Amino acid sequence: MLLLCASPAPASRFQGAEYGVPPDCSHLRKTSPSGVYVIQPAHSPPRVVWCDMDTEGKGWTVVQRNTYSTELTWKESRTTYKYGFGNVQGDHWLGTEYLHLLTQQGTYKVRFVVQNRANVTHYAEYDIFRVESEASGYPLRLGRFSGDGEDYLTIYHPKKGGIHDNMKFITANRDQDQHSGNCANSYGGWWYDKCQNVLLNGKRYIFWPEICSSGDRTSSLILVKPTDVC
Q1: pLDDT confidence of 150, banded at 50, 70, 90?
Q2: Where is each Fibrinogen C-terminal domain found (predicted)?
Q3: Which helix (H) or strand (E) holds 109?
Q4: Is residue 84 part of a domain?
């Protein structure tokens, strides 16, 4: 579990700020509507993203969206996952490299959201969220949990997939998990151990124990924004 914090810098200190391009969606006016915007994390080219201004706290940058009936296979290569794919107005993955650059700017938190067939949403939030560099395998770092149900990302579950916190990002053509095979071959790119407790990157498979144990929830979202836990 990651407990190190870095103070978020003001927008004016970020690359691109002089041109009015914010480093993430939290720098939009609170009255701004949810929609498509351009952001520019430090050391990154500008990126088109969906900014969620409706979820509690406003100013969330959407880094993943998946629906059960998606046209995406999610079985993309490491390079495709690195730079992102899909449509920010629909199902998409921002890009593992951009997740790294985004979360290196300061201390970020994450909210994982899943919705069932009755349109009821559940969420799991971690007060620290970071994706490390490509050289280290894009490992996931998470802080303290809050939300619905149990924590299935930072607690080890030996009868399921082990753990996700501190695991490297696995794709079908880059096996770095602790399983005898490649976990990503069956579903899609994710932070696997042996293989998964939780999986949101899958075609017709969105899985979170207790919340969506059958894997057939209608949609998932991953939202990030700066946090002030320190």
Answers
A1: confident
A2: 16-228
A3: strand 108-115
A4: yes
AA identity, residue 165:
D
Look at residue 17 and tell me if it is in a domain: no
The answer to whether 192 and 179 are in contact (CB under 8 A) is: yes
pLDDT for the residue 207: 87
Domain that holds residue 196: 36-226
DSSP H helices, the chain, are: 78-83, 96-103
φ and ψ at residue 157, rounded to 5 degrees: -120, 95
Residue 175 is predicted with a pLDDT of 59
Q: CATH number of the domain at 159, please.
A: 3.90.215.10
Tokens 């753990």 belong to which residue? Answer: 163
Q: Mean of the pLDDT values across residues 28-39?
A: 97
Best CA proximity match to 202, nearest among 76, 97, 101 = 76
Rounding to the nearest 10 degrees, give the CA dihedral for residues 177, 108, 151, 139. Answer: 10
Least confident of 7-16, 41-50, 90-99, 107-116: 7-16
Asked if the model's pLDDT at residue 200 lies above 80, the reply is yes
75 inside domain: yes
Extract the tokens encoding 97. Answer: 């490299």
User: Torsion-angle region of residue 20: left (phi > 0), alpha (psi -120 to 50) or beta?
Assistant: left
In a domain, 173, yes or no: yes
Calpha distance 79→128 (Å, rounded): 26
**What's the total number of domains in the chain?**
1
Name the amino acid, one letter, at 29.
Answer: R
